[in-house]
Specification:
The complex is a heterodimer. By secondary structure, chain A is an alpha/beta fold. Chain A has 15 helices and 11 strands. Classes of the chains: A alpha/beta, B mainly alpha. β2 of chain A pairs antiparallel with β1 of chain B, so a sheet runs across the interface.
């Protein structure tokens, strides 16, 4: 036992040696990244050879010089809105086929998380399904980061009924709330909604008919957007007055489906049905469903790519992408954003189920990018 | 051993004796049926879950499995999406987790049990570690983002598999420490005393007697901790795992540790929120795959335990 103190020290030494060697292995792994982190290197190198603005304007209107830039490497991380994520995924997939050497990572935790990640300097590009808030812009600027704001597309939602249903042509937000809001729970026919509709000052009374509702489930971004844009104002007002449940905006007793095809089939198969889906999907099925006009307070507007793009149709929101201005000249980032704003890139907005911007907005986005205009511009 | 009556044998004999007098031990048999009921309930849940996942994912598992296992994420259609990046990422993250959590955790346990046993410091540390084991994983995600992805950016490369792995290492570290502490405490003191008695040094006692004796339990604990890390999505999403499209670019095998990464549970999270039954099938199939992966890791734990187990 006399030996114990001594050997104890020896044991400790060995333990320390063990931990040190482990730390060395870890450090070896780490040092590897200093040489390979294309993100940092590329932006550093590129900053010295920053392309002049007129040079970028040349690239901006044509996507087809991509083939000449085959040797681009580097890394692009995109985060932010989960609504915009599918567009970025499609763009990134096509971009990666042209530029296989660029490392790519797309995440969609949410618009707010995107602006936070940007303020921490984590990403060169981030998405948002709403315009950046002043407080978020201040946080990002406070971190020494200037951002370029681009609109990339529009998320429009169509209210639909069966193709042959002549009893409804236009619905206001009050009408929609009295038909699908939380207080309409249990309404089996359009006539059931009439007293609530009158109380809200809607456009009713409705012609009677069995009310069958088909719409996306609550996991869907379309569901969230519909609540935010069409129902939330009326619903919040009703909550304040103590009429409506403060936790749920939409009645639970409707046919929820994550599959847009199921919604279209359900709506087209019931004469007095009501439902909502992304505009692109409704537009493709005009033979089966009727796209109802919506009155957001400024009169009835029929959803068309033009009325959605001009924001006349009320159930729509712009989708944004933001870029760290200091990394705009990174070859990989530059090539990707060029691709995103090219005519080819814009087709992926529609493929993801959204609506293209009107030409003026797209031109504004392209000129923001070409001139590296920072701050909010829309 | 076989000729001696084991304690289990005695118990069986006693139960036989009771069975000859029905009604004599109502509480005992009621308790037994309660236990059987609880077991059926617990395994029933698992069976239903497994059945639902296999049924939902059957289209992918039966017709498309090889493609699904060997291709990366695609937004174009559910049929074009695969999970190889998730499998690779999960294995990378688990490797980093193991590299950090196992040596650190086992070393901590050895210090607490063999060197600082009974001291006030050891008691405080042990108590805190036990409390840490109950902290929700999302909290470790926030820690990982702040410490490993941002503060230690130069070492981890930002939001990479190394940062993700270290985050999960911090999460499972308390489990590794606690199981290792229990394993070392379970080694009888008579073994240590006998070794000291024949003149062994502390190092010899530790390295030749105590550690080999405790090895099987330590291994089981650490492998189970890794299995838990394999199933985590929430902390990794915070530490920047890609939920959508991902490409390694021109990175080599080592550079993928410091580039973008994802993990199977993160991909399941993405598949599950895409619209359409096809994506649901992908989510179910990926769930079955992660279950197989975790079962394989647990199987390894059982094998190692049986291989190294010591009897006194």
């Amino acid at each position: 036992m006399r030996k114990t103190p001594l050997s104890s020290r020896r044991g400790t030494k060995l333990l320390v040696a063990l931990l040190t060697s482990f730390a060395l292995i870890a450090a070896a792994c780490g040092s590897d990244d200093d040489s390979s982190d294309g993100d940092g290197d590329a932006s550093g190198a590129a900053a010295t050879t920053a392309a002049p603005a007129d040079d970028m304007a040349d690239d901006e209107d044509d996507g087809h010089d991509d083939e000449m830039m085959e040797s681009i490497s580097g890394a692009i991380d995109v985060t932010g809105s989960s609504t915009v994520e599918p567009v970025t995924n499609l763009l990134a997939e096509a971009f990666s086929e042209k530029h296989p050497d660029v490392a790519f990572s797309v995440a969609g935790p949410g618009s707010g998380d995107g602006h936070k990640a940007a303020a921490a300097g984590e990403v060169p590009i981030w998405n948002s399904s709403r315009q950046i808030k002043d407080s978020e812009a201040e946080d990002i600027n406070a971190a020494g980061i200037e951002f370029i704001e681009l609109r990339v597309g529009i998320d429009g939602i169509s209210v639909i009924t069966a193709a042959g249903n002549d009893s409804v042509d236009c619905l206001s937000f009050e009408d929609l709330y009295s038909l699908v809001g939380i207080e309409s729970t249990g309404f089996d026919s359009w006539a059931d909604a009439n007293s609530l509709n009158a109380e809200l000052g809607g456009s009713g009374p409705f012609a009677d008919g069995a009310l069958e509702i088909f719409a996306p489930g609550e996991e869907s971004g379309t569901f969230d957007s519909f609540i935010e844009i069409a129902l939330e104002d009326v619903w919040e007002h009703r909550v304040e007055e103590g009429h409506a449940d403060e936790n749920f905006a939409v009645r639970p007793d409707y046919n929820a489906s994550a599959n847009d095809n199921v919604i279209i089939d359900g709506v087209s198969g019931n004469q007095h049905s009501l439902g909502w889906v992304g505009f692109a999907f409704a537009d493709e099925n005009r033979d089966k469903v009727k796209l109802v006009e919506v009155d957001g307070g400024d009169g009835c507007v029929s959803p068309t790519p033009e009325t959605i793009a001009s924001a006349e149709f009320p159930i729509a929101r712009f989708l944004y992408t933001y870029i760290d201005a200091a990394r705009a000249s990174d070859p990989a980032v530059k090539a990707f954003v060029d691709f995103m704003l090219s005519d080819e890139g814009q087709t992926y907005v529609v493929d993801a189920g959204y609506v293209n911007l009107d030409p003026a907005d797209l031109e504004q986005s392209r000129s923001n990018w070409a001139n590296l205009t920072t701050g909010t511009t829309f | 051993m076989s000729v001696l009556t084991t304690p289990a044998g005695i118990a069986t004999g006693a139960a036989d004796a009771l069975r000859r007098r029905p009604g004599a031990d109502v509480a005992g048999s009621a308790f037994k049926w309660l236990l059987i009921g609880a077991t059926v309930f617990a395994t029933g849940f698992l069976a239903v879950l497994l059945a639902v996942m296999i049924v939902d994912g059957w289209d992918v598992l039966s017709g498309n499995l090889w493609y699904f296992l060997t291709h990366g994420f695609s937004q174009r259609s559910a049929g074009e999406a695969g999970v190889w990046q998730g499998i690779l990422g999960s294995l990378q993250v688990a490797l980093v987790t193991g590299l950090f959590a196992v040596p650190t955790g086992v070393a901590t346990a050895i210090y607490l049990v063999e060197y600082a046993q009974g001291s006030r410091f050891a008691r405080i540390v042990e108590l805190n570690i036990r409390n840490l084991a109950g902290v929700p994983s999302i909290v470790y995600g926030l820690l990982g983002l702040a410490v490993f992805a941002q503060t230690l950016n130069g070492f981890t490369g930002g939001t990479t598999a190394i940062a993700g792995g270290m985050t999960l290492a911090a999460m499972v570290l308390p489990i590794v420490v606690i199981t290792s502490v229990e394993a070392l405490k379970a080694v009888p003191d008579s073994l240590r005393e006998a070794a000291y008695g024949v003149g062994a040094t502390k190092w010899e006692v530790l390295s030749r007697q105590v550690l080999p004796a405790a090895l099987s339990t330590i291994l089981t604990g650490t492998v189970l901790a890794l299995a838990r890390a394999l199933g985590e999505a929430a902390p990794l999403i915070l530490v920047g795992a890609a939920t959508g499209f991902m490409a390694f670019g021109d990175a080599n095998v080592f550079e993928t540790f410091t580039g973008p990464y994802t993990a199977l549970p993160v991909l399941i999270f993405n598949f599950a929120r895409q619209p359409g039954a096809d994506w649901g099938a992908n989510a179910a199939a990926a769930s079955v795959i992660i279950l197989v992966l975790v079962l394989a890791v647990n199987g390894l734990a059982i094998y190692l335990r049986n291989r190294f187990e010591k009897q006194w």
